[in-house]
């Protein structure tokens, strides 16, 4: 079992390679392979400080850097972050524009650091509708990090799960019409291959910040057996310690995937 205090001390220990330090504390099998986060509460964080909402998004961007590098050091393989949903276009124009500029700012400032951590940048969502400068920044980061084999930092941008599922169905119907697939071939595994997450395992852990208790059209298919952690902390306040706490809570969960624990099998 992960010892949180030990881990936290190791994380803060100066003069030691943090990677080595952390890997000593962890049993790899206990680290979630894929963590998904709904980064919520930027607006409320700003409001509490009498700042415009975009100040919260900017602060939230800095937290992305902190949590991505920590997740990478801990050995998480995929970190999917809900950065902009298909429904977020309904927000005021200036807020949408600001959110669309954040990937450029984030990658402009932090790409060298992501490279140093062997992080690969990816995006899921419909690229066509996002501004060309956002597309360019993301494509450049994806290209420059494509050979990195550490953490995949997967931004869900202009992403909506119902939309994703609908496109999967459409493409399956198209492939069926073209004789590429038969009705009997459409298993859960094959269906998953038509989703934007086809290259990743389903998330083991989903964290939503800010106290809201809903999924907001995020990875509805993929989260079927994921462990959920909801925290009241607003995303701009979400700290490395909060992330470690979430991992600790995750490791204390009993995952049965609809079955029983092995010791219960014969009861
Ligand atoms: C939800 O909070 C947050 C978003 C819609 C945007 C999330 C984006 C970031 C954290 C920055 C992303 C950074 C990069 C690098 C792309 P909210 O605005 O709904 O907050 P509220 O519920 O308090 O109003």
Plain-language structure description:
Helix content is 44%, strand content 13%. It has a six-stranded parallel sheet with strand order 3-4-2-1-5-6, sandwiched between helices. With 267 residues, it is of the alpha/beta class. It is globular. It has helices at 4-12, 18-25, 42-48, 53-74, 93-116, 132-145, 161-177, 188-192, 240-251, and strands at residues 34-38, 78-85, 120-124, 152-159, 205-208, 227-230. The structure holds farnesyl diphosphate (FPP). Farnesyl diphosphate binds next to helix 3, helix 4 and helix 5.
Sheet with the most strands: spatial strand order: 3-4-2-1-5-6
- Ions, cofactors, ligands: which are bound? farnesyl diphosphate
Q: Strand pairing plus helix content: what structural class?
A: alpha/beta
CATH homologous superfamily assignment of the domain at 31-160 and 202-249 = Decaprenyl diphosphate synthase-like
**Class of the domain at 31-160 and 202-249, according to the CATH hierarchy?**
Alpha Beta
**Count of helix runs:** 9
User: Uncertain regions: pLDDT < 50 for 5+ in a row?
Assistant: none
Q: Measured on Cα atoms, how large is the radius of gyration?
A: 19 Å
Question: Approximately how much helix is present in the residues?
Answer: 40-55%
Q: How many distinct beta strands?
A: 6
Sum up the overall morphology in one term. Answer: globular
> Do you know the CATH architecture of the domain at 31-160 and 202-249?
3-Layer(aba) Sandwich
Termini Cα gap: 25 Å
Organism: Heyndrickxia ginsengihumi
Protein name: Isoprenyl transferase
EC number: 2.5.1.-
Active site: 40, 88 (proton acceptor)
